[in-house]
Amino acid sequence: MTTAEEIKTRAREIMARELPEDYDPNVKDDEPLLSEGGVDSLGFIHVLTILEAEFGAHVPDEEWWDATSLDALAEVILRNQKQG
Question: Could you write out the three-class secondary structure of the chain?
Answer without folding.
Answer: CCCHHHHHHHHHHHHHHHCCCCCCCCCCCCCCCCCCCCCCHHHHHHHHHHHHHHHCECCCHHHHHHCCCHHHHHHHHHHCECCC
